[in-house]
User: Fold this.
Amino acid sequence: MKIYTKTGDKGTTSLMNGISVSKSDDRIELLGTIDELSSHIGLAKVLANDDFKDTLSHIQKNLIQIMAGIADPRDLNYRFSSSETASLEQAIDEIEQSFPRPKEFILYGSCEQSARLDVARAVARRAERRFRKVSQYYGADAKAAQYINRLSDYLYICARYADYKAEHKKEDKIQDNVIRNILKDM
Assistant:
């Protein structure tokens, strides 16, 4: 089977249930946004340690399930579980308790890892808005929409933690250099 079907040449595509829709259909916009979100999460994985990489991969698998549910909403096998959202909430709480999170507005880009996570978070917020629109016109899995909302919060707290770790790494390097210079002068 070839990768190209040529149906897109006419501005249409098919959902998993075989329904042909315009490429400008709200469901296609949502699917594209979630695909973009998963791509940005993949980009963030490049700089992640193994545990965080595994977590981000798990999130990407969840996004694939959510996309399948959007493309074929009548297939109950793609319905999303609230336990995944609860897991994100638990992770958010644990991360937030592990460092002093800034409470003011943040200028993004303090380090490469946080910048990548912030881009993913912004795309998650867009996916959430698009989910709302799809839900209004076609119906959508409310638990999946809730997961996307919590995912943006999770990506935000992970980005702030990455900022915190990067800042302390700089401070540690500065302190190490000061100590080396003191010892060298002795």
Remarks:
- Residues 62 and 84 are 8 Å apart (CA to CA).
- The chain is about 70% helix and 5% strand.
